[in-house]
Specification:
By secondary structure, the chain is mostly helical. It folds into two domains: 320 residues, 2-methylcitrate dehydratase PrpD (Orthogonal Bundle), CATH 1.10.4100.10; 136 residues, 60s Ribosomal Protein L30, Chain: A. It is built from 24 helices and four strands. A four-stranded mixed beta sheet has the order 2-1-3-4. A hairpin with a 4-residue loop joins strand 3 and strand 4. Helix 5 packs parallel to helix 8, helix 6 packs antiparallel against helix 8 and helix 8 packs antiparallel against helix 9. 48% of the residues are buried.
């Protein structure tokens, strides 16, 4: 039986643009549009600016301390605008820092931030064309999602952030495709990616910039491994399903399911994750079609509760004065949701990073304003801006009423992400709203106009007419394409 890495390598190498359906290609273009909007706005965030200053400082140092032993061009230190590792690293951070990037519910991963950041960096550096670019991103998404479905939820439950860990392998697959690695080189590339994969959820929930770093790190490691493999640096083929590999270390139950099945001589009673059937039933099904997009700049697990809260706001917001009277007369706000969402129970976030993981604070903003966007996050959390004390008091009042409850019945509906928000007033009146699955996926998928509206909201000064060329990206070299996209 082939190891997982060999299966992945075969899929990536043989994937051809001409064999990919129009639906898949069009979905890839829509996801690229969403990625660009998130990344342009993410460039303004403090985390990205710190990363840029750091890279610039390191480049300045290394440029003035080149080794006297350098024998050829392979050892040249590229400047910031040309080095694909640096470009990918920065774009990875910028695309993920707002928590607005795309994701996959069952896989519990944000593939776009790593795949697109890698594809842009390599395509510009190697002068790849639009067809090659789309080929690579479709392959990168497939590897990201197929592996994350296999590894999760166990991988997440052990404390790993799939965007950082599995995102590294997806970045390597994307880079390898664009570097035109042969099968041996691709296996080495993915093997190296597996051993550099990292990202712990403690960073996500601890109010640090580490979550954004996971995406940037995944991109830079994926690119680095691709170039190393191209030169002959070797990686182990068994890095995912080997006895001391990725699944054993980072998703023990997934590994045990595979091992128990492989140890059975008479393979008649197949486990849920029979590796052969899993890969044959999933690899090449183009899971890019199942990716969701995000409306609110917070963790996806909070979105259903936000939408239920906004529905309540809309129901009772006849006029501002009446609404604030209603808010002040709330006795309790009961939030019933599934386990993972209920664990986002920080009531006192100290910065934007913590707020994006806070269920209670997200509900408070949504109930107070009937929305949750980047401007409201800045307005309601102390990030160096002047905070309106009246707003602060209103939010604290709402927070004091919120009770978060893990609901067994809603747990059974996962990977749907259900939430019921119940307002109980002092006069005995009750309003409740239930959201089964948030906007952006399934029957509530975003269309192109939704994505353009999101883009304009994030980047109001940008001339969106330039984005029309995404429809015909196949006609461009990516270097020229990005010059147009980035032009003033």
């Amino acid at each position: 039986m082939k190891m997982i890495i060999e299966n992945f390598a075969d899929f990536i190498i043989t994937l051809k643009y001409s064999k990919i359906s129009k639906k898949v290609i069009n979905n890839g273009k829509l996801l690229f549009l969403d990625y660009l909007g998130n990344t342009f706005r993410g460039m303004e965030e403090e985390s990205t600016q710190i990363a840029i200053k750091t890279i610039n400082e390191l480049n300045q140092y290394t440029s003035s301390h080149k080794s006297n032993n350098a024998q050829n061009n392979d050892y040249i230190i590229f400047n910031e605008t040309k080095n694909p590792i640096n470009r990918g690293f920065i774009n990875g951070i910028a695309s993920h820092t707002l928590d607005l990037d795309d994701g996959h519910s069952l896989g519990q991963i944000h593939p776009g931030s790593t795949v697109f950041s890698t594809a842009i960096a390599i395509s510009e550096f190697k002068n790849r064309n639009g067809e090659e670019f789309l080929e690579a991103i479709v392959g990168g998404y497939e590897i990201a999602i197929v592996l994350s479905i296999l590894a999760n939820p166990e991988h997440r439950n052990q404390g790993f952030h799939s965007t950082g860990t599995i995102g590294t392998i997806a970045a390597g697959a994307t880079a390898g495709k664009l570097l035109k690695l042969n099968k041996k080189q691709m296996i080495n590339c993915l093997g190296l990616c597996g051993t550099t994969a990292a990202g712990l959820l403690e960073s996500d929930h601890g109010g640090s910039m580490g979550k954004a770093l996971h995406a940037g790190n995944a991109v830079s490691n994926g690119i680095k491994c691709g170039f190393l493999a191209k030169k002959g640096f070797t990686g182990v083929e068994s890095i995912i399903d080997g006895n001391e590999g990725f699944l054993k270390a980072m998703s023990i139950k997934s590994y045990e399911n595979i091992k128990n099945f492989n140890d059975i001589e008479e393979k008649t009673n197949k486990t849920e994750k029979d590796l052969n059937s899993y890969l044959s039933n999933n690899l090449g099904k183009f899971h890019i079609n199942d990716v969701y997009l995000k409306k609110y700049p917070v963790c996806r697990h909070l979105h259903s509760s936000i939408e239920s809260s906004i529905e309540i706001f809309n129901e009772i917001n006849r006029n501002t004065e009446e609404y604030y009277k209603s808010i002040k007369n709330i006795d309790k706000i009961i939030v019933k949701t599934y386990k993972i969402a209920s664990q986002h129970n920080n009531y006192t976030p100290k910065n934007k990073e913590e707020l994006r993981q806070s269920l209670a604070y997200s509900i408070a903003i949504s109930l107070l304003f009937g929305d949750l966007n980047i401007n409201l996050i800045t307005k309601t959390i102390n990030t160096g801006y002047e905070i309106n004390n009246e707003i602060n008091n209103e939010i604290n009042n709402i927070l004091s009423k919120i009770i978060i409850v893990e609901d067994e019945n809603l747990n059974k509906l996962y990977p749907k992400r259900p939430s019921k928000v119940i307002l109980k007033f002092k006069n005995g009146k009750t309003i409740e709203k239930m959201t089964l699955n948030p906007k952006g996926e399934g029957k509530n998928k975003f269309n192109k106009n939704d994505i353009l509206d999101k883009f304009k909201t994030l980047n109001p000064q940008y001339n969106i007419d330039k984005l029309k060329i995404i429809e015909n990206i196949e006609d461009y070299e990516i270097y020229d394409f990005m010059k147009i996209i980035n032009s003033k």
